[in-house]
Amino acid sequence: MLGYAQPSFIATAESNKQPYKVPSFFVRRARADFKAEYDSLYTLYFEFDGGPASGATLVEAYSQTTLLRDVLTFRLGKYIQPFSAENLRSSRGLETIERFQALNAYIGLPGLDAQNGVMLFGTDPGKMFKYYLSINNGINTASQGGNVKDNNSDKDYIGRFEVSPTKTVKVGLGLDYDKELNQGLVLRSYSGVFYDSINVHGTRLAVDVDLHAVLGKIGLDAEWLFADFSDTNATLHGGYLQASDWVKGSEVEGGIEPLVRVEYSTITAKNPPGPAATAKEIDGAMMMSATLGVNYWMNQWVRWQVDAIGETTPHFQSGGAMPPVLLRHISRPAARAPE
Predict the structure, then answer these.
(1) Which helix (H) or strand (E) holds 115?
(2) Contacts of 299 (CB under 8 A, 6+ apart)
(3) Is residue 33 within 8 Å of residue 337, measured between CB atoms?
């Protein structure tokens, strides 16, 4: 049995046009997990979240069988789609409170996240290469409690490949293909203010590249996402660069880890189809942000996170750049759930 909670506090500058400028306390996640394993070959896992305002929802629920130890494992059920490295990591394992904005926009389509499907994955005996091949429904299931059958014949196809040339360096590549229903692609600030949006449909082809390196106590991370909606003449892209340093201790023994992250995100739309009254072009001006943060591990199970985020928005739809300050206290069990 596993579980963790993320009580949070957020406050923003007065220039922000959203209610979050009033300091607020809330529970971001409150999750309970169950995992059963037999002979390191068979796994049953499910997770529920009581944090959403709509009530408890099914986050993940799958069973898996290792057909060839390390090399080939079969998973069936609801799980996190293996496209983005940052999205594959549980919030328990994130060094920042927020995932990068382009990824949030892609998830919000919905483009990916926890979806029903089937996946094959594995690694080589030397654990230098790792692969994931996944087929999923690719629809939004949040409003139905997180578990519904597909509402169309198209499926979401995802492949991810990772290479670890050394024990401290990893490079990943994710590929995603789907046929979109008519949906809204929305790019917004970290406090929820709309920046740009457009309706997309038809073919969606996306690529995600990530790099992770550990140099002593210094960590370097980067990820970039690009999605092309060719039938709508629209694109989404963005990414981040991050550096962190353990100035004291470590995650296992408790310690302090400051970090800095810079990122950008943008939507473009050239001659989008549709009536002239509703179709609009988007020039691709970039929303950029910087995060200064610190992780304070009181011990290996409890962590405080504080992030200060500043954003610049060339043509912000709701006005006002806004530097929210987020603080989160995490309690978690003695063993991590599968990431």
Answers:
(1) strand 114-123
(2) 253, 254
(3) yes
Residue 127's CB is within 10 A of a number of other CB atoms, namely 10
**Rounded CA gap, 13 and 325, in Å?**
9
CB 113 within 8 A of CB 107: yes
pTM, to two decimals: 0.86
Ordered per-residue pLDDT tens for the chain, 339 residues: 999 999 999 888 777 666 556 788 989 889 999 999 999 899 999 999 988 877 778 889 999 999 998 899 999 999 999 999 999 988 888 999 999 999 999 988 876 788 899 999 999 988 899 999 999 987 655 544 557 777 777 889 999 999 999 999 999 999 999 988 888 888 888 877 777 888 888 899 999 999 999 999 999 999 999 999 999 889 999 999 999 999 999 988 999 999 999 999 999 888 666 554 445 667 777 889 999 999 999 998 999 999 999 988 765 544 334 344 445 444 433 333 333
43 neighbors 21 (Cβ within 8 angstroms): no
Instruction: Report how far residue 214's alpha carbon sits from residue 257's, in angstroms, rounded to the nearest whole number.
Output: 13
Query: Which of 172, 250, 255 minimizes the C-alpha distance to 216?
Result: 250
* 78 residue type, one letter: K
Contacts of 278 by beta carbon, 8 Å cutoff, 6+ apart: none
Cβ-based burial of 180 (10 A; exposed 0-12, middle 13-18, buried ≥19)? buried
Q: What is the DSSP string of 3-43?
A: EEEEEEEEE--TT--SGGGS-EEEEEEEEEEEEEEETTTEE
Structure tokens at 119: 């996946």
Amino acid at 296: Y
Q: Residue 87: helix, strand or coil by DSSP?
A: helix
